[in-house]
């Protein structure tokens, strides 16, 4: 026993543990000071530079991704200590599937392993109370990763201290298109309930039928029928949209020519739900936003990207 103790003790290991304890103490102090000031509720992170780091350090690229993951977790812990409520990480875009097959495979293996590690980490799940949410097109992921994602969400569902949103197989274009399609379908269902079929005040029966069947827009551009149905209804969805989004809607109509009004309006509702800003604020945001990376990033790039894509049914 004594022999084993004398083998494990070394001045170097003693120095290393002393050094890390001192660093930990100062980090803790620094975070306490920072927490006195304003702390953002939501921090979004784009994982980037893992391969460049690996190439520069002459290590395997998979190891570069592994180090990137470790950094993410320590950043998450620091955010949680500061009182940040949401950390959103853009970990894998739909476009990333176009990377070489062996890299995609290695990343998928890493995701599966790390999602399970998060679930099994006492530190993350119990001490930090991390709740995991996976955002994206889960159907595009291999079944083992999808299952790991479901496990992580289920295992941390009860936690509430900090939410870790992991964007996997995600792009904001796909998200916007899907949400618009979903809202369109709900809207059209509401429309068909709210408006008696064949009412003389409504659009022609032909355009009404087209809207109900979920077309992207009215065939004839801004047919009176289509606009009248939208503007005159009292459903909350419609009035919300009309209330603060008229500028956005009309700009969108001008830009897209014959894209349907239904979609312009739905986009307005969605922008509001995204960040709670008014249509005009959102537009100002659009005009001033820049940077390549923002284009595909959730929240910041959403509206900008939407304006540059034409929704298709
Ligand atoms: C569970 C969980 C959160 C797992 C995370 C897995 C992980 C590390 C994903 C990052 C993948 C990725 C595309 C990183 C970007 O760096 P890059 O490859 O684009 O590097 P580069 O900019 O140097 O080319």
Automatic annotation (TrEMBL):
Species per Swiss-Prot/TrEMBL record: Riccia sorocarpa
UniProt record similarity statement: Belongs to the UPP synthase family.
PANTHER family given in the database record: DEHYDRODOLICHYL DIPHOSPHATE SYNTHASE COMPLEX SUBUNIT DHDDS, DEHYDRODOLICHYL DIPHOSPHATE SYNTHASE FAMILY MEMBER
Protein name: Alkyl transferase
Keyword Hydrolase: no
EC number: 2.5.1.-
Keywords annotated in UniProt: Transferase
Transferase among keywords: yes
Listed GO MF terms: transferase activity
SUPFAM superfamilies associated with the record: Undecaprenyl diphosphate synthase
Region ranges (Disordered): 275-297
UniProt xrefs under InterPro entries: UPP_synth-like (IPR001441), UPP_synth-like_sf (IPR036424)
């Amino acid at each position: 026993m004594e022999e084993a103790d004398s083998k494990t003790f070394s001045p170097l290991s003693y120095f290393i543990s002393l050094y890390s304890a001192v660093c930990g103490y100062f980090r803790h102090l620094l975070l306490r000071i920072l927490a006195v000031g304003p702390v953002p509720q939501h921090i979004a992170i784009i994982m980037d530079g893992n391969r460049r780091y690996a190439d520069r350090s002459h290590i395997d690229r998979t190891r570069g991704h592994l180090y990137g993951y470790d950094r993410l977790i320590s950043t998450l812990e620091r955010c949680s200590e500061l009182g940040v409520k949401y950390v959103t990480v853009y970990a894998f875009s739909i476009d990333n599937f176009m990377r070489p097959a062996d890299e995609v495979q290695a990343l998928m293996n890493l995701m599966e392993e790390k999602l399970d590690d998060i679930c099994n980490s006492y530190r993350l799940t119990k001490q930090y109370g991390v709740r995991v949410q996976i955002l994206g097109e889960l159907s595009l992921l291999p079944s083992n990763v999808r299952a790991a994602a479901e496990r992580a969400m289920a295992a941390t569902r009860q936690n509430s201290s900090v939410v870790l949103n992991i964007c996997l197989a995600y792009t904001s274009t796909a998200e916007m298109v899907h949400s618009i399609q979903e809202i369109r379908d709900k809207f059209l269902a509401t429309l068909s309930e709210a408006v008696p079929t064949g009412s003389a005040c409504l659009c022609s029966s032909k355009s009404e039928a087209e809207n109900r069947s979920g077309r992207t827009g009215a065939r004839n551009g801004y047919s009176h029928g289509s606009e009248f149905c939208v503007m005159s209804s009292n459903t909350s969805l419609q009035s919300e949209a009309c209330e603060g989004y008229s500028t956005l809607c009309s700009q969108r109509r001008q830009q897209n020519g014959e894209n349907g009004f239904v979609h312009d309006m739905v986009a307005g509702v969605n922008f509001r739900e995204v960040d709670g800003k008014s249509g005009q604020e959102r537009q100002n945001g659009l005009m001033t936003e820049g940077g390549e990376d923002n284009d595909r990033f959730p929240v910041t790039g959403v509206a900008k990207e939407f304006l540059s894509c034409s929704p298709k049914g």
